[in-house]
Amino acid sequence: MAPNKYMQETDNNLVHTYNRFPVTLERGEGVYIYDTDGKKYLDFAAGIAVSGLGYGNQELNLALKEQIDKLMHSSNLYYNTTCGEAANALKKISGMDRVFFTNSGTEAIEGALKSARKYAWTKKTGRYEYIAMKDSFHGRSMGALSVTEHEAYRAPFEPLIPGVSFAEFNNLDSVKKLVTDKTCAIILEPLQGEGGINMATQEFMEGIRELCSEEGILMICDEIQCGMARTGEMFACQLYDVKPDIMVMAKAIGSGVPVGAFAMTQEVAEYSLVPGDHGTTYGGNPLACAAVAKTIEIFEREDMKAHVKEVGSYLAEKLDELVKEYDAVLERRGIGLIQGIRLNQPVGELTKKALKEGALIISARSDVVRLVPPLVIEKEHVDALIDVLSKVLREML
Ligand SMILES: *Cc1c(COP(=O)(O)O)cnc(C)c1O
């Protein structure tokens, strides 16, 4: 397909940091997106686990339009009308006590890391080290990259911040071996997204919680991708009945309006950040917070958790059938509407072929097909996706 003017303009003018699919998306409706040629795609990517409500949700859009007409930005030097409401809603669903709004997930990770260091500093514990997990992904700024274990992402930017070590995910002993009297925090995704849809075990999550409480270490859960009802619980750590000291959120909380947040217990808040320690010009702005407040209102009213549990288990059933049917499909991973299938080969060809067949699908690492659709999909959309996957798998094998 010949590149259109949008592709040319993009490729000629942007820094080349992304390998884009050769398609220009223009508008969305429900769980479908249309490109500039009018071709319709079933969306199983949701803009990387962001658009939980799908596209064209009139209630959300109206709330955003109204807020745009009232006030989009005011800075944190003043109070605004939506910031407190959004924070209160996030507190209720997360079980945390205090919230700081950012503009992205990466920035929220930075704030979480700083909070843990400041907590140790205030308490004069002399702790500053972090333990993170292998196959983790927390973002690409210098701090977030420092706790991200992916050699290709890290190598050109070394040295990163010192005092970070990496444990085996789901191996409590390997975490325990890395704990020192300098460890201030352990950071993990309860369900690793970019790393290949790897779910923590119950034993691991409980073990980390216990270890942190015993040793005076803060537990940071990165819920950026796996949070906001994607697993069938509002946050993935709730699947395990484990409460972190700091929770990091982004992606789906604003339904596409760029916003992130980190939240903490009252105990952490009392001993960590004070005025002057951290800030952001846009963070908590009226538009972003209107998006968060309305998103949570809709999720709760529509009982999104129950919907995800139902459609998610149907998706799991159907993916299990693919595992049985095709030798190349090695296993199914994940839960709810964050699932994947691991193939015995790179999945790049499959995602490209699926695009031709009218489905947006992304990968996680090289060999996992990652399925993170809008949370409002129905079983019929799962059936349509499975048809595409089956067709493409038959073609490939
Ligand atoms: C996407 C993601 C991030 C980074 O968030 P951005 O909004 O892209 O900065 C961090 N952690 C996890 C688990 C993510 O999936």
Describe the structure.
The protein is of the alpha/beta class and 397 residues long. The chain is built from 14 helices and 17 strands. It has helices at 5-13, 46-49, 58-70, 83-94, 105-122, 142-146, 151-154, 172-178, 202-215, 266-271, 286-301, 304-325, 348-356, 379-396; strands spanning 25-29, 32-35, 40-43, 98-102, 129-133, 164-167, 183-188, 191-192, 198-199, 218-222, 246-249, 260-264, 329-335, 338-343, 359-360, 362-364, 368-371. The strands form four sheets. A seven-stranded mixed sheet has the order 4-12-11-10-7-5-6, sandwiched between helices. A four-stranded mixed sheet has the order 1-2-3-15. It has a four-stranded antiparallel sheet with strand order 13-14-17-16, covered by helices on one side. Helix 4 (83-94) crosses helix 11 (286-301). It is globular. The two termini are 24 Å apart. Pyridoxal-5'-phosphate (PLP) is lined by residues 104-106, 109, 137-139, 189, 193-194, 222, 224-225, 250-251, 260.
Mean pLDDT: 97
Structural class from helices and strands? alpha/beta
What is the share of helical residues? 25-40%
Number of helices: 14
Task: Tell me which ligands are bound.
Answer: pyridoxal-5'-phosphate
Distance between the termini: 24 Å
Query: Which outline best applies?
Result: globular
How are the SSEs ordered, and which strands pair?
Elements: H1 5-13, E1 25-29, E2 32-35, E3 40-43, H2 46-49, H3 58-70, H4 83-94, E4 98-102, H5 105-122, E5 129-133, H6 142-146, H7 151-154, E6 164-167, H8 172-178, E7 183-188, E8 191-192, E9 198-199, H9 202-215, E10 218-222, E11 246-249, E12 260-264, H10 266-271, H11 286-301, H12 304-325, E13 329-335, E14 338-343, H13 348-356, E15 359-360, E16 362-364, E17 368-371, H14 379-396
Parallel strand pairs: 3-15, 5-6, 5-7, 7-10, 10-11
Antiparallel strand pairs: 1-2, 2-3, 4-12, 8-9, 11-12, 13-14, 14-17, 16-17
The structure holds pyridoxal-5'-phosphate.
